[in-house]
Design brief:
The protein is an alpha+beta fold. It has 5 helices and 4 strands. The protein has a single domain, classed as Sufe protein. Chain: A.
Length: 152
């Protein structure tokens, strides 16, 4: 196994063992629930937005290591971003997980996309893509004031 792959696995395990921004956020302006019926992952994403900027973000729920790690990383990366940048991150991350050809990262979000490379391996396992992207779909739904999302 390559050193890079081992590093990626360690990052995922660290976020799974000690998820960042885990637990309900009260009060919050936006909230959505996500469910992946294929493996049983459930997540709730909470957001507080002020002047078009995500000022607070948290998640709650349970799932596999990839799902929890992705949600944890998402909360770290989305906090402090404009709604437009959060949506651009979501679109780019979705593409990273599903497309063999990786487009350049959106301008101004290169560092964020670099840190998400640890989850790019899921594209080789289509059933795991939904685990990695569930929290991101749920965050996007919350920003659009949708109450829930499913990755069926």
């Amino acid at each position: 196994m390559s050193d890079l792959r081992e590093l990626y696995q360690e990052v995922i395990l660290d976020h799974n063992r000690s998820p960042r921004n885990f637990g309900p956020l009260n009060p919050c302006d936006h909230k959505a629930d996500g469910h992946n019926p294929l493996c049983g992952d459930n997540v709730t994403v909470y957001l507080t937005v002020a002047d078009g900027v995500v000022t607070e973000v948290a998640f709650d729920g349970r799932g596999c290591a990839i799902s929890v790690a992705s949600a944890s990383m998402m909360t770290e990366l989305v906090k402090g971003k404009t709604i437009a940048d959060a949506e651009r991150l979501f679109d780019s991350f979705q593409h990273l997980c599903t497309d063999e050809t990786e487009p350049p990262a959106p301008a101004g979000l290169e560092d964020e996309m670099d840190s998400l490379q640890v989850l790019s391996g899921v594209r080789a396992f289509p059933m795991r893509v939904k685990c990695a992207t569930l929290a991101w779909h749920t965050m996007s739904a919350a920003l659009q004031d949708q109450q829930e999302v499913s990755t069926e």
